[in-house]
Design goal:
Distance between the termini: 22 Å
Radius of gyration: 15 Å
Number of helices: 6
Number of domains: 1
Shape: elongated
Largest sheet: none
Strand content: under 5%
Number of strands: 0
Structural class: mainly alpha
Helix content: over 70%
Amino acid sequence: MKYLSLAIRFIVAIILLQTLYFKFTAHPDSVYIFSKVGLEPYGRIGIGILELIAAILLLIPRTVAWGALLSLGIISGAIFMHLNNLGIEVNDDNGLLFYLAVVVFVGSLITLILYRKQIPFFKG
């Protein structure tokens, strides 16, 4: 179970980190997405910073649950925007961004469940 949870954390962190290039370099696809939802440029940069923090927290053993909670919140917003504003497919990506968001959501949820005792209000 230890290696499975580590693999899930790495997968989520890698997905979060690889999207930063697009956000921080103002890639046209990223600018298009954030413009369409009314968050360009501050939302793009701010969410990129939050994703970077979440990825780092996921990789530090003492802060895994906080990283999972943060990434779960961020990615919930992304999925909501896909379902309400953007659609599953964005700029002919065959739904890749949406499906990566679902992977991050599921991975973050599993990680949060596994590490829930790190968060004071989940202890019981």
